[in-house]
């Protein structure tokens, strides 16, 4: 490794900061932001000092992956014999960095000579630069964190966003991620370098700076790592990149993402969701009806025009267990949400119809009176057969409403927290007074992530409706029928006066 860092004076005179500046000036036609110079100086300083364990945490969209890609290109420029392995949460992300570095080597004024003569050595997920020695491993290789890397060897391992929701949203996934990362020690050469870049996505994050004793952790996962942590703003509120992230932009991001996600992804503070509670005091209650204005083909609540609607059904069968809950949420022109109907479905024990048919009829009725363009049905477990039955019930009553199946494979606690986080923090969730007569408010007050006996059926249904993208069923209704979401149509009103 010492030989790697003591190259010819001709190459050593080109430091990493100059390498970046020349790239930005001659190829990108842009100045180099101070935040990128800070990252570059830190990376090069550690490299030249022989500090081979590094963690770079910077807020989302800060350009940390871009700088790391340039760093990899610079390292190959200094020593073409290096072997770099890029690990990411999935193969596509790792391949993106390798492809980016390959492009830099092709276009940078100092590295064009590194492109090999054989095309097969210059692919998207791996490439080998022109080098004097013959090695079995390529100069740069992309792999997903779950890929088989046995038999590979690397002088540098770059772990680029290996912690994402898909790799850390359960205890089992977090344990599996740690096991996979520990296996990289068998791939890395004795004096090799390991560089992590990313943002924390869980309270029990691999990037933690203190052990989670309450979770049985005796030490942090990355001990003895040099750390550079760059939040979007410091304790005094000064932006880390004022040219792109001014205070107004930062505030807008915070409002749109919610305090928990903003804290973890922009301020780099791991959030303990066990501390996240749903406060009913943040709800805005109203007692107005849903008003359909036929002449304008428009829906209003309290005089505010609705632009989209989301129906979500979290079904359940059997008595004494989970509740089967249907939620209808409207969105107004300002982007605020209106929980207008929350139905905990009850059955008629004396009915001749089966349980599934009874439930579908009730959901179809709500879709009709609320003029919903679509209803999403959670098809986990028992819900697989219900979309078909619901479509039949809607067709029987001539209701122009589409049905789609939704399969949830993420942890329910995270789904609920993420759905409510933004709307409660911004106080933009309006709730009809009728919801007070349901168990919903009790569920909010008693809900605690990870507590299995907490009732959360209503929370889950409302979270599902809030998380849905706007649905517009412009082409679904039968000929001659139109929905309140149709736009661009003229209406000629009948009048009894002359102008």
Plain-language structure description:
The protein is of the alpha/beta class. The protein has two domains: 9-230, Rossmann fold (3-Layer(aba) Sandwich); 280-467, 2-Layer Sandwich (Nucleotidyltransferase, domain 5), CATH 3.30.420. The chain is 31% helix and 19% strand. The chain contains 14 helices and 16 strands. Strands 8, 9, 10, 11, 12, 13, 14, 15 and 16 form a nine-stranded mixed sheet that branches. A seven-stranded mixed sheet has the order 3-4-2-5-6-1-7, covered by helices on one side. It is elongated and about 85 Å long. The termini are far apart. Mean pLDDT is 88; it is low at 7-11, 471-480 and 495-499.
Mean pLDDT score, rounded? 88
Number of strands: 16
List SSEs in N-to-C order: HHHEHEHEEEHHEEHHEEEEEEHEHEHEHH
How widely separated are the two ends? 90 Å
* Tally of DSSP helical segments: 14
Low-confidence residue ranges? 7-11, 471-480, 495-499
CATH topology of the largest domain: Rossmann fold
Number of domains: 2
Counting helices, strands and paired strands, the structural category is: alpha/beta
Tell the overall outline: elongated
Task: Please bin the fraction of helical residues.
Answer: 25-40%
CATH architecture of the largest domain: 3-Layer(aba) Sandwich
Strand content: 15-25%
Radius of gyration: 28 Å
Q: In CATH, what is the homologous superfamily of the largest domain? A: P-loop containing nucleotide triphosphate hydrolases
CATH class assignment of the largest domain: Alpha Beta
The largest β sheet comes out as: 9 strands, mixed
């Amino acid at each position: 490794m010492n030989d790697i860092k003591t190259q010819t004076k001709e190459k050593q005179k080109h430091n990493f900061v100059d390498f970046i500046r020349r790239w930005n000036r001659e190829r990108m036609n842009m100045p180099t932001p101070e935040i990128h110079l800070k990252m570059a100086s830190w990376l090069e300083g550690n490299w030249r000092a022989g500090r081979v364990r590094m963690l770079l945490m910077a807020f989302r969209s800060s350009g940390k992956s871009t700088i790391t890609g340039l760093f990899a290109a610079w390292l190959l420029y200094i020593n073409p014999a290096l072997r770099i392995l890029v690990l990411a949460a999935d193969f596509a992300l790792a391949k993106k960095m390798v492809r980016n570095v390959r492009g830099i080597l092709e276009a940078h004024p100092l590295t064009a000579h590194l492109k090999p003569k054989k095309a097969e050595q210059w692919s998207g997920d791996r490439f080998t630069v022109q080098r004097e020695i013959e090695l079995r491993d390529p100069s740069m290789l992309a792999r997903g964190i779950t890929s088989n890397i046995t038999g590979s060897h690397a002088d540098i391992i770059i772990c680029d966003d290996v912690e994402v929701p898909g790799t850390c949203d359960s205890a089992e996934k977090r344990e599996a991620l740690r096991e996979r990362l520990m296996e990289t020690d068998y791939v890395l050469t004795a004096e090799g370098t390991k560089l992590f870049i990313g943002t924390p996505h869980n309270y029990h994050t691999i990037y933690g700076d203190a052990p989670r004793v309450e979770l049985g952790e005796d030490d942090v996962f990355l001990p003895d790592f040099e750390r550079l942590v760059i939040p979007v703003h410091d304790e005094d509120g000064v932006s880390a990149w004022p040219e792109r992230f001014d205070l107004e932009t930062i505030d807008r991001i915070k409002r749109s993402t919610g305090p928990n996600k903003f804290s973890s992804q922009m301020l780099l503070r791991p959030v303990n969701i066990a501390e996240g509670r749903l406060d009913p005091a943040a709800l805005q209650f109203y007692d107005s009806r849903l008003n359909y204005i036929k002449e304008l083909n428009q829906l209003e609540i309290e005089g505010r025009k609705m632009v989209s609607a989301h129906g979500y059904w979290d079904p359940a069968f059997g008595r004494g267990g989970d509740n089967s809950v249907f939620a209808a949420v409207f969105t107004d022109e300002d982007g605020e949400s209106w929980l207008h109907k929350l139905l905990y479905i009850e059955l008629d024990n004396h009915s001749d119809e089966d349980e599934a048919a009874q439930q579908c009829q009730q959901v179809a009725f709500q879709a009709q009176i609320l003029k919903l363009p679509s209803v999403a049905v959670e098809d986990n477990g028992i819900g697989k057969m219900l979309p078909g039955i619901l479509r039949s019930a809607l067709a029987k009553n001539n209701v122009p409403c589409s049905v789609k199946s939704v399969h949830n494979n993420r942890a329910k606690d995270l789904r609920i927290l993420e759905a409510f986080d933004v709307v409660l923090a911004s106080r933009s969730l309006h709730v009809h007074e009728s919801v007070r007569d349901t168990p919903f408010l009790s569920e909010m007050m008693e809900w605690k992530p990870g507590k299995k006996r907490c009732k959360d059926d209503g929370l889950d249904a409302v979270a599902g409706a809030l998380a849905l993208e706007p649905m517009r069923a412009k082409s679904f209704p039968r000929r001659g029928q139109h929905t309140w979401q149709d736009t661009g149509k003229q209406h000629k009103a009948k009048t009894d006066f002359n102008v």
